[in-house]
Design a protein that fits this description.
- The structure holds two protein chains of two kinds.
- By secondary structure, chain A is an alpha/beta fold.
- Chain A has two domains: about 55-230; about 235-263.
- Helix content of chain A is about 65%, strand content about 10%.
- In chain A, strands 3-2-1-4-5-6 form a six-stranded parallel sheet, sandwiched between helices.
- The radius of gyration of chain A is 21 Å and the shape is globular.
- The N and C termini of chain A lie close together (about 5 Å).
- Chain B has two domains: about 1-90, no CATH class; about 130-195, no CATH class.
- Chain B has seven helices and no strands.
- Chain B starts with a helix and ends in a 9-residue tail after the last helix.
- In chain B, α1 (about 5-20) packs across α2 (about 25-65), α2 crosses α3 and α5 packs across α7.
- Helices cover about 85% and strands about 0% of the residues of chain B.
- By secondary structure, chain B is an all-alpha fold.
- Chain B has helices spanning about 5-20, 25-65, 70-90, 95-130, 135-150, 150-155, 160-195.
- The chains are: A alpha/beta, B mainly alpha.
- The interface between A and B is large, with 71 and 57 residues.
Amino acid sequence: MEAIQSTVTGIWDSAAPAIMGALLLLLVPTLYFFTLRARALLRAGKPLPLRRMPAFERLSRAMDAAAETGRPPHISLGTGAVGDSSTAESLAALHLLAPLSQQAAAYGVHPVVTVADAGLMLAAQDRLRQAFRQHGPEREYRFTDVQLIAPEATAYAAGAMGMLSRQELSGNVMAGAFGEEYFLMAEVGAWKQPEQVAGAADPGVLPFVHVTSEAPLLGEEMFTAGAYLGKWASHIGSLFAQDWMRVLLILIILAGMFLASWH
Amino acid sequence: MKRILPTVVAMVVGIIVLIDFFVDVGYINLMGRLFVDWAVILTAFALILGVINLFLVHFRRIRTRQKGWPYSIILILALWTVLVLGLLDPAGHQGQSIRWIFQHIQYPLQAAFFALTAVFLFTAIYRAFRLRRGENVWFVLAGILVLLGATAVGGWLWDGFASIREWIMNVPALAGARGILIGVALAATITGLRLLLGVDRPYAE
């Protein structure tokens, strides 16, 4: 048994890049096919086969509350960056920011967007400027609406906590890459702010997300903002492609289980 | 052109760096490393813009006397103090003065800050009990069992709590975490792929 395991491990180690490459090549046509399908569904005006996500309904409500009260929402894009291992989570946070910015620009609301990375700050400023250009008067855009609090996670959390406890906001949205510092910020947000929607992908942070947000975005759910809020065909197609790839992975895991038990 | 050029540059650079991960070809490896080095230099420039942003945000807060504006004065003073000390010291950020600031101000403050976690945990447990969601019953039950299995009180009450804790951590918790990780990995891969294919353009303008 040990010999078989070491052989399989050896094969896997040498073939891992090739398997990953094959998976990527398989994903390209899958993504393309499902994006076309999503586009056809959107054009036909048919209802999208997406399950209900209370977090996104709450996000829209928070933006409506911002328009009614004149209080800005706080949108934290996490302590991650663009260009390191947290890039995917930071991009997911940017995809969440885009439709919220569009809504804010249409309502004439200036959201307070905070980041812990200068590269992410520039990307967020770009999203916000585009939103004001397309959905509101461009002159209303202020680059200081996106604030780099600190490039270090603890200092960022301390700054965000101060903001959440002092400033009168319509809600607190937290999505992106977070570590332990998430809990400190989210606790203050949960006590002080009327609405809190949070999302994270790190399994170590998810229990805290669960208890500090009435409608959490857990794991991959954080990556679905473009599909739910933006109604972008490529993002809806991505969800379909992910579902199919998940089925494939489940079958591979089951096959592995069967082979391991059989030997 | 304004939209196409950044997309093409991002696609080409991204694909070369990706190919560098898969193949061991001299010039591809060289180009991959070169692009990563360029990214590091660009990030340093972005940091300068970040510091300017930080300064302007807090300067505006002081000027308009927003709530908590005295904290902004402290922040700007601290920013300039560390910057000037770092520039004046021949050893730069490795200098004695900067090291003193980190050892005697920054690190103790960080430690004190994270000590708040213990207090906040109690309020979070209270919140977990208060949230009226079906799955919270399981959430709280698992939490109590793991807590009993990890503390001396649990061992004193019943020695089986340790085995239950081990089972919870190794079977349902680990299986759940792996499921989440697979889902996140798929979502992250597709996010990256959309970027490489030029479908998503966070750099559009």
